[in-house]
Each structure stands twice: as structure tokens, then as C-alpha cells.
Amino acid sequence: MTAIRDRLLAGLVQMYSIMRCPADSCLAGLPFPQPKHSEKFKNFRYNMILHIDMDAFYAAVELRDDPGLTGKPVVVGGSLSGRGVVSAASYEARKYGIHSAMPAAQAVRLCPDAVFIKPRMQHYAAISKQIREIFFRFTSLVEPLSLDEAFLDVTGCEKLFGDGPSIGKKIKRVIADELGLVASVGVAPNKYLAKVASDLEKPDGFVIVDADQVESFLKPLSISRVWGVGPETAKKFNSFGVQTIGQLRQLPRDTLERAFGLNSEHFWRLARGLDTRSVVPDRMAKTVSHETTFSTDIDNDDALMAWLLELTDQVGRRLRRHGILGKTVQIKVRFSGFDTIVRSRTQAAPSHTTQVLWETAQDLLASVRRTDRRSVRLLGMGVSNLTSNEKKQQGLFDRDDQAKANRMDVAADRIRDRFGGAAVKRGSSLAHEIKYQGDPRVIE
After folding, report:
1. For every one of its 444 residues, what pLDDT tens digit does the chain have, with 9 covering 90 and above?
2. Is the bond preceding 203 in cis, omega lying within 30 degrees of 0?
3. CA 239 vs CA 110, 191, 232, 259, 336: distances in Å
4. In terms of Cα–Cα distance, which of 155, 191, 140, 153 is closest to 35?
5. What domains lie within the chain, and their CATH numbers?
6. CA 403, 409, 412, 418 torsion: positive or negative?
7. Do 54 and 181 form a contact (C-beta atoms < 8 A)?
8. Can you tell me the distance from the alpha carbon of 171 to that of 179, in angstroms, rounded to the nearest whole number?
9. SS3 of 332, please?
10. Residue 183 in contact with residue 172, Cβ under 8 Å?
11. Which of 15, 114, 225, 366 has the fewest CB atoms within 10 Å distance of its CB?
């Protein structure tokens, strides 16, 4: 009966969400009566955005699967020999200063007793798929950011599941009950505030930001909580006596413009909690992309290429899953000082073949690194100029090697879908023994 109930609810959610306007999350104009809200959360009437972030996801899965690791500093990725790069660290390991993207040799020096575990990327992807299926029980407006986090727009779902905070608590509880994992949840009127909220009380956090509380919520937070403010930008703000978001709000706008130029508008708006971006599901996206922000800036070319390959594989599989081809490949590189470079190249024909996308992406990154050797804070890869898979990929499969690569991608995806993520693994690898195992962080 539970399975039948869940399917019926999922169908209602899908129908209800389709009738909403994704670009405007309010209920105005819909053929439904305005829902009643509790007085406590009355300001969630129109915008109810959740940001759900799995706590130390890779490490948490390993701890769940092997209870004997409980209480030990667990590091996913790298090895005790000092080779490789850390993909994730348990909260016990983080107490020693270990974090993702750190060279394993440094992690060993910080914690010689750490337990190093080889990543099971396909296993994590399979669990990520289960998490996303839970999201879809409540809303069809799900925007994955990576394997372990996503935005959900639950505006308009009150009649089925309650207000935003109620839905957030239900999702958090279902993930814990069904998967044995812990998620932190932020509930707010927009994406920026929801993401900040979800990170404040990790692990096992649940933070609500009501529309009337935005200024008081942001005021005491560190300036580093503003998207785009890294260590170098924070130092610049500090030189103006700005250490908190509340102090940033008091900074004269002309001073902000002189100091930060085009980025000043971005900082001014976020300091006031303003963010008008909608939650955009894959099927509505004009660009399919993934990006990752490193805990510590990276200047090693091999490590950057390894991360770019991982991102490219995520994007390729998402394209194939949704029957989409992309003609323009782009990368985004953000340096420690918040300077950002975007490079793109339009291919002769659209593709969703991982190898084809990777060849272009790595050329773009190599071109950037030849002229700019600064440490990298954020790396992203995306594909735009999208088209339907039904259109012929003229010119792309004139070469046998490309046709073979595409067939291998499709066959591997089908086997994974049917038998699980571990059924097929790619054999290629990069420096530091980072294995190219396909789709390590995409939510299916």
C-alpha cells in the first residue's frame, strides 16, 4: 500500500508542478485556491526554496556501509602512500584539517591514523539517484548542483505536503529512514539564502530564513558567506573595515563600485539577500553544466585536468539521459581573487559523447593554463547550444572512433541503469591515480 500511495503522490506532484509557471514561483493565476499557512511561516506563501546538502556524502556512505569505521577519521580518495587526491573526508577527519581536493600526502601528514578508502563513484551515483527520487515525491522542480546537493522549489505544494519547513523536515526524515544518511536543509525565499542556511549548522542542520528575517539573518555572518568572496576578496573587504555581511550593507555604494567594479552589484544584492534566479530542472535548462568549488585553491595542472574530466563525464551522462546534444563546450575558471575566465568553443556538430566533449574541454583548459598560472578556486564545465537527440549528428560519426565512443557511452549507461552503477567502470585514468569512473557526482 505504501508503494501505491507513493506513486499516486508522485503523480499528483508532477501534475501540480507542471501547471505552475517555473519562471515565477508564485501561485497567482493558478486554478487553485490560495493555501492557508501557519502564522509562523506565513511569509513562505509565494517563494519556498529548499537547498538540501548531504553531509560528507562519500564518507557518510562508507560509514553507513561499514559501521566498523564509526568514530575513525575516514578519507575517501588517495592512499596512505601519499598518492592521489582527497575526494571527501568524514567530520572526524576534518578535525585534523583534511578537506576535499587536498593532496593525500598532506592528509597523511595531518593525520597518520586516517583510514583511506578507494572511491566507489558508481555506488555513490546509485545512492544519489535514490535521493533524487525522494525529492521527486514532493516536487518536480529539482535542480541538481552535484551528486550530493540540489535546489527544490516547493512553492505550490502546500496542499499536499504542508509549507516549506514542513516539506524540508519530511524530506530530511525520509532520507534518514530509507537510506540511513543525514542531510542538512536550508529553507528560504530564494536560492542564495537557502544555500547559506543549509551550511550554517552542519552536520544534521535545519535552518529556516523567513522573508521578514533576511536582514537579521545575514547581518552577523562572515563576509565569506557571500558567494564569490574568497580569501583574497575577503582581505580587500577587511581593508575597508568590512568583516560581516551587516558591515557590507553599510558600505557606501560608490565605494563598493570603485573597489570592485562590475562585481559590486553582485555583492550589493547578495548583502541584502536578493536573488531572483529560479530553480531550473534539467529539461528546462539552456545549458547543462557542473562546477565545483575547492576548499583550497589548486595550482596543479594534473589535478585540475582530473577534476575537469570528472565534470565532463557528469555533463555527458546528463545529456544522454535526457536525449540532448550540445554543440558549444565551455569551461569556467575562477581564481582566488574572484576573477573569472569563461572559454568556449563551438564544435562542427552537436554531441553528447563524453570523449568528444572531453577533447574540447581539455584543450580549453590547457589554453587557459598556458597564459594564466594563478591558483584556481572554482572549475566548471558546461554544454550549450542544445538540440534534440533525434536530429542527425551530421559529421560527428564520420570517424569510426567517435562512433565507437558514442556506442560505448550508450551501452555503459544502459548497463548501469539496469544493473547498478558498479556494473561498468571506465578504465582510463589521470595523474595522481584519480580514476575516470564516469559520472561520479551527477544526480541521475
Report:
1. 444 445 445 444 444 443 343 333 333 223 323 333 333 444 444 579 999 999 999 999 999 999 999 999 999 998 888 788 898 999 999 999 999 888 899 999 999 999 999 999 889 999 999 999 999 999 889 999 888 999 999 988 887 888 999 999 999 999 999 999 999 999 999 999 999 999 999 999 999 999 999 999 999 999 999 988 888 889 999 999 999 999 999 999 999 999 999 889 999 999 999 999 989 886 666 788 888 888 788 999 999 999 998 899 888 888 887 778 899 999 999 998 778 899 999 988 899 888 899 999 999 999 999 999 999 999 999 999 888 764 444 444 445 556 666 676 766 666 655 554 444 444 433 333 333 333 333 322
2. yes
3. 32, 29, 11, 11, 17
4. 155
5. 1-211 (3.30.70.270), 219-271 (1.10.150.20), 286-435 (3.30.1490.100)
6. negative
7. yes
8. 11
9. strand
10. yes
11. 15
Beta bridge partners of 146: 149
Closest CA to 223 of 241, 210, 208: 241
Supply the DSSP string of 1-52, one letter for each residue.
-HHHHHHHHHHHHHHHHHTS-TT--S-TT-SSPPPP--GGGGGGSS--EEEE
CB-based burial, 232-271: b 16+ in 10 Å, e otherwise: ebbeebeeeebebbbbbeebeeeebeebbeebbeebbebb
Three cell numbers written together for 391: 536530429
Task: Collect all residues with Cβ–Cβ distance below 8 Å to 368 and sequence separation of at least 6.
Answer: 331, 333, 341, 343
The answer to whether 406 and 340 have CB atoms below 8 angstroms apart is: no
**For residue 18, what are the CA distances in angstroms to 11, 15, 22, 190, 412?**
11, 5, 8, 20, 31
Close Cβ partners of 7 (under 8 Å, ≥ 6 residues apart)? none
Q: How far is CA 329 from the centre of its chain?
A: 19
How many CB atoms lie under 10 A from the CB of residue 392?
11
**Catalytic: 149?**
yes
Concatenating the DSSP letter of every residue in 379-404 gives EEEEEEEEEETTS--TTGGGSHHHHH
> How many CA atoms lie less than 13 Å away from 282 in the CB half-sphere?
25
From the list 149, 158, 310, 444, the catalytic residue is 149
Can you tell me the distance from the alpha carbon of 36 to that of 183, in angstroms, rounded to the nearest whole number? 28
> pTM higher than 0.85, yes or no?
no
Other Cβ atoms less than 10 A from the Cβ of 302: the count is: 13
